[in-house]
Amino acid sequence: MARNYLFSSESVARGHPDKVADQISDAILDAILVEDPHGHVACETLVTTGLALVSGEIKTEAYADIPRIVRRTIQKIGYDKPEIGFDSKTCAVLTSIDEQSADISRGVEANGSPTIGAGDQGIMFGYATDETPELMPLPIMLAHHMMIRLEEARISGAVDFLYPDGKGQVAVRYVDDRPVAIEAVVLSAQHRDVGIEKVREGLLEEVVKKTLPGNLYDPAKAKTHLNPTGAFVNGGPKADTGLTGRKLIVDTYGGMAPHGGGAFSGKDPTKVDRSATYAARWVAKNVVAAGLAKRCQLQIGYAIGVAEPVSLAVDTFDSGTMPDAEIEKRIAKVFDLTPAGIMETLKLRRPIYEETAYFGHFGRALDAFTWERTDRAEALKNA
């Protein structure tokens, strides 16, 4: 019997309060990694009306001018005018930073040591599917593309009344686990007070129709909700407090795969919440790229201070060309999934993280996103 269902995923704009917080945390991480690639950072940010608060634990020899980094990041996002409700020049910036606990750092590494323990215990998931060129689920990729186009339309002036905040959602009809149609679209964008009809027309013509593929999206048939509550003039941190790490499903697979629970932004790569989740995506993507399965989900488990994973599990959802246990054996031969191996192979001690903090950590063909490479596909075929 054919499986027939709808699946929705959402994405958010760079100016969404939670994403503002993520970008600030990762900008601080990058500033430290420029001077100290072995710095330990766990940096959390809260943004609200007129305030950015940075807290966390940092152990480094580098100096980071945190207030300057915070203001520069907020300005780059687009909050640079008082009338938007949050302004990089006038908001207060408070910091509360402690040093990393010695109980944690002694289990992780001595600087430069080849043996590095995981920075925390936990489970991490990776996922890939052959339903898109990026080997990502279609709903989250469409939602991200819609948010990217919203940003482009705002910056270029193609839609000249937009402010930085916004959210989008796409519902895709699947038959036998393959996408066949887009049945619902939701897009809410912060804007100047220009009248709701003008806002909806601009969003439909300049964002939705220029993003969603015509073979899947029919405006006459799909439910399209544009700023469905009406005006969205008050947005950003003025209207909604933002916190680092609250958009985990936006950051990953749009809900198509599980999440281990650990956030990414503001964490240096010794934190396996981040680095091992990147590695799990890398492994899953290479399994699909090698033709060993149409879909692949990987779970990796770690213990704090221990280098080798404590568990590895593969699920190909009956789409594999061989048993999942055989794929697990090949993965163990081809990939070094210790923290040191992941950081070295994926080059994670570089200042590359601010760019990951918006429009998703996966599915983007950027040079810095080494976990998106399919450079181990041939090795998996021949293992």
Instruction: Name the helix and strand elements from N-terminus to C-terminus, one letter apiece.
Output: EHEEHEEEHEHEEHEHEHHEEHHH
Helix content: 25-40%
Please tell me how large the radius of gyration is.
21 Å
The profile of the biggest β sheet is: 4 strands, mixed
Class per helix and strand makeup: alpha+beta
Write down how many β-strands occur, each being a DSSP E stretch of 2 or more residues.
13
Number of helices: 11
What fraction strand?
15-25%
Average of pLDDT: 94
**C-alpha end-to-end distance:** 36 Å
Read across the widest sheet, the strand sequence of neighbours is: 1-8-9-10
As residue ranges, the low-confidence spans are none
| Tertiary shape | flat
Description:
The chain is of the alpha+beta class and 383 residues long. The protein is 32% helix and 24% strand. The chain has helices at 17-35, 66-77, 102-108, 138-156, 196-211, 236-239, 248-251, 272-289, 324-334, 339-346, 377-382, and strands at residues 4-12, 40-48, 51-59, 80-81, 86-87, 92-98, 122-129, 162-175, 178-191, 223-226, 242-243, 295-302, 311-315. It has a four-stranded mixed beta sheet. A hairpin with a 2-residue loop joins strand 8 and strand 9. Helix 1 (17-35) crosses helix 2 and helix 8 (272-289) crosses helix 10 (339-346). The chain is flat, with a radius of gyration of 21 Å. The two termini are 36 Å apart.
